[in-house]
Design brief:
This protein is 51% helix and 12% strand. The protein contains 12 helices and 8 strands. The longest helix has 18 residues. Bound molecules: guanosine-5'-diphosphate (GDP).
């Protein structure tokens, strides 16, 4: 229900465009394919993934000799769902975390993408299940980042570990994990700096944060969640490229899918980086985070 509401704009735009692409045509020909290519690119599916999808449809046209435009929806949906299955994601159905105590999530991403908000919404969901959550204010470069996370910690009513602005993010991560162990916490969510770095700095910083956490828990973090703003299209691809080069990203959260006609970014990014999209943000409110479900998402595109 909420997903439908959240992604309304995405649906309407994609379907409208698709309708225009086949207007007055009864079969899928080169012109329809050209139009479709343009729609996919303008929906931020990305060029590489768009070409993949078009190729697959061309193959089907070649094989079946004829493909009616009424069938295009179904075929397209099958191909996109198939592509997403290859990434093997969308399995989770709720906000549960593995029973490993504490389960450590390190959150990375550029300023402004919705990192703090996503951490707050996640903390809320985990707490709602009765889990003990601890937050770590590892973005020490901006006072506002620490303050914002504190606001979420108060709102959700979970403890937060922080230091002064300008302190070493790795030191905050160390403190957080150590406190979490002491408090017997179930889940730890650690924020990291969101400055736009050069690649080497970013890599050094994230590596250091991880290394220091591992002094407390050998195999921490259990998850490196990259937050991307779904409304920024190519920037989101670029950020995914930078962060995956700098550290081993294990999951993605794509935010702001409520306000954009460009939900295709989810399809393209998951295909190109082969990393599961775990959560999607569909608003600014505390409840506006959803566990990503592949089938629902693809359906919402074609409804
Ligand atoms: P950060 O700098 O990455 O920590 O970003 P914030 O969490 O502070 O979010 C930046 C802005 O984006 C804030 O105004 C948030 O309310 C807003 N925001 C975050 N997630 C979403 C979302 O899913 N949808 C919408 N519409 N706004 C969001």
């Amino acid at each position: 229900e909420t997903l439908d509401k959240g992604l309304e704009k995405t649906n309407t735009n994609f379907l409208n465009k698709l309708g225009k692409a086949v207007a007055g045509k009864s079969k899928v020909d080169d012109e329809v394919l050209d139009n479709l290519e343009e729609i996919l690119v303008s929906s931020d599916v990305g060029v590489a993934t768009t070409i993949k999808i078009i190729d697959r449809i061309e193959e089907r046209v070649a094989r079946d000799k004829y493909l009616g435009t009424e069938e295009l929806n179904t075929i397209l949906r099958e191909e996109i769902a198939g592509l997403m299955s290859e990434t093997n994601f969308g399995d989770a159905t709720d906000f549960s975390v593995p029973a490993k105590k504490p389960y450590v999530i390190m959150v990375v991403g550029v300023n402004g993408v919705g990192k703090t908000t996503t951490i707050g919404k996640l903390a809320y969901q985990f707490k709602k299940q009765g889990l003990n959550v601890v937050l770590g204010a590892g973005d020490t470069f901006r006072a506002a980042a620490i303050d914002q996370l504190q606001i979420w910690a108060d709102r959700v009513d979970v403890p937060i570990v922080k230091q002064q602005m300008g302190s070493d993010p790795a030191s905050v991560a160390f403190d957080t994990v150590q406190s979490a162990v002491k408090m017997d916490a179930d889940v730890v969510i650690i924020d990291t700096a969101g400055r736009l770095h050069n690649k080497v700095n970013l890599m050094n910083e994230l590596t250091k944060v991880k290394r220091v956490m591992q002094k407390v828990i050998d195999d921490a973090p259990d998850e490196v969640l990259l937050v991307l703003d779904g409304s920024t299209g190519q920037n989101a691809f670029e950020q995914a490229k930078q962060f995956t080069a700098a550290t081993e990203v294990t999951s993605l959260a794509v935010t702001k899918l409520d306000g954009t006609a460009k939900g295709g970014v989810v399809i393209g990014i998951s295909d190109q980086f082969q990393i599961p999209v775990k959560y999607i943000g569909v608003g600014e409110g505390i409840e506006d985070l959803q566990v990503f479900n592949k089938i629902e998402f693809v359906d919402s595109f074609f409804r």
